[in-house]
Design goal:
5 strands, globular, 5-stranded mixed β-barrel, 60% helix
Length: 517
Amino acid sequence: MIFGLAAYAQLPFEPLPQALIGVALALSAAIAMARRFRALPVVALLGAFWVGFCLLPIHSGMFGTPMLAFPAYGQFEARVDEIISANAEERRIVVSGLVPMGTTRPVAISRARLLVPAEPALELGDTIFGRFRLAPVPGPVLPGGYDGQFHSYFSGIGAYGSVIGDFALVAPASGFDVSRMIESLRFGIGARIDAVLDGDTAAIGRAMVMGDQSALSDETRDILAESGLAHIYSISGLHLSIVAGGVFWLLRLGLAAVPALGTRLPVKKLAAIGGLVAAAGYLMLAGGPANVPALRSTIMLALIFGAVLAGRRALTMRNVAFAALAIILIDPASVFRPSFQLSFAAVVGLIGYFELPRRPVKGQSGWLLRIGSTVWVTAMTSFIAGLATLLFSAYHFQQTAPLGVVGNVLVLPVVSLVIMPFAVISVLLMPFGIEGAAVSVMGWGIDRMVDGGVLVAGWSEGLTGNPLLTPVAILIGIAALASVCLCRQLVADAGACGRAAVDPAAGPRSAARYSGG
C-alpha cells in the first residue's frame, strides 16, 4: 500500500478517475478468480498496491483545496477552526469560510493559516474580521526537502497569512462544542504551567503536556537535537506509553491489592480500559487527531489494550501493521511525513529486536542487578530505535546524534520517573488549584533533562555532521525494516536449530520455545 502511495506521488500527471475505477474493477475480478489458480497472495499484493495508489486521489477529493497562486490583500471575515499555538504576543490559527468584505476580491481557498495578535481572546467557532495579507504556501527549500504545499493541500489549507490591521471579534461562538471545550482546557492548563514555570522550562512543560511547542527557543531545540533528545518534547509513543501504562499498572495494582475485588473482577481487563481512557484523554490534550504522532501512538495503544481485553498477546508486528493501516486510511499523506516514518521505524526495530530468540532470563536478585538491567534495557532500546531511524532522520533533517544513546540513558529515567508522573499529578490537581508543587517538581525534572542535553551536546561537538542523502536512502531503510518484519521467523528458526545443536538435551520443546512455537 505504501509503495502504491509513493508511485502515485511520482506521477507527472493526474490519472483519469475512469482509469482508476477500471483497474480497481479488474483487480476485484482477478481476486475473485485467483483462488482457482492459487495466485491469491500475488493478486492481493497487487490489490493493496492499487488501494494505496488510489488513496491520495480519494483523500484529495474529500479534503483537498485550491491553492492560492498569487498574494492577496483585503478585508475578510472568517471562522476560527483551530488555535495552533498562542503566547503573550501572537497566535497561530487556522480559519475557514473566508468572506470578502467591501471591494475585496474573493479567494477560492477553503482554509488559511494566519498569524494574529494576542488580543482579543479567541475560541473555536468565533467569527473574526480583519485586513488579511495572504500568500501562497511555500514549497520545498531544497529538492526533496519538506514540501509544505503538499501537506497543506491535504489538510485543506490553501494559504498562509497574517493580520495587518482592523483585527476584531465579530461574533463569539454559540452553543455547546466539545472541541471548543477541549481547546479551552488545553490552553487553561498551559496558563497554569506558565504561572509556575518560565522560559524554556515552561515551554517544554507546555510541549509535553498539551503539545504546544511554539515558545521553545531555537537554542534549546538545537541542544536537544544534538544530544538525541528532540523526541522527548514532542508528544508521541513515549509519553502516551508512560501515562497510559502508568494508569494501567496503578489500576491493576490497586484492584489486586483488595482481595474482595481481585478475586471477583477481571482486574487486568479493567486496568486496560483505564489505560485506554487515559490514552484518549492525553490525545485530546495533545491536540486531538490533528496531532498525527499522538494519534498514531493512541491507535497503537488501543490495539495493545484491545489485545489485553481479548486475551491475546499485546505487542506484535501484526498490531503495528494494523496501526499503520489505520493511519494510512485516515491520512494517507502522513506516509510522506518524517513523524510517520520515524515512529514506525523505531517501533518495528524495537519489536524485531526484542522478539529475537534468546535464553530465558532468570529472576534477578539484588538492587544493583536490577538497576544494571534497567540501564542495559534503556541503552539497548535507545540504540535500536536510533539505529532504525538513522537513515530517516539524516534524510529529512540532515542531522545525526552520534551520542543519542548516552543522552537517552541519562535522561529517560528522569522523564519516566519525574517529569511525566508529576505532569499527570499536576493536571489532576489543577481543578483544586493546588498544582503548584507538582508543576515545580516537573520543572525541576525538565531542567535536569536540559542539563543532560547540554552535557551530551558538548561531548558531541565535532562529531555531528550534515549528511545529504538521496531518496535511495529511504528505500534502503524501508527494505531493512521489511527484512526485520519478514525474516524474524527465519532468524528464530535458525536460533532454535543452533540451540538444539549446542544443547542436544534441550530437545524439540526447547527448539519450539526458542522459535516462538
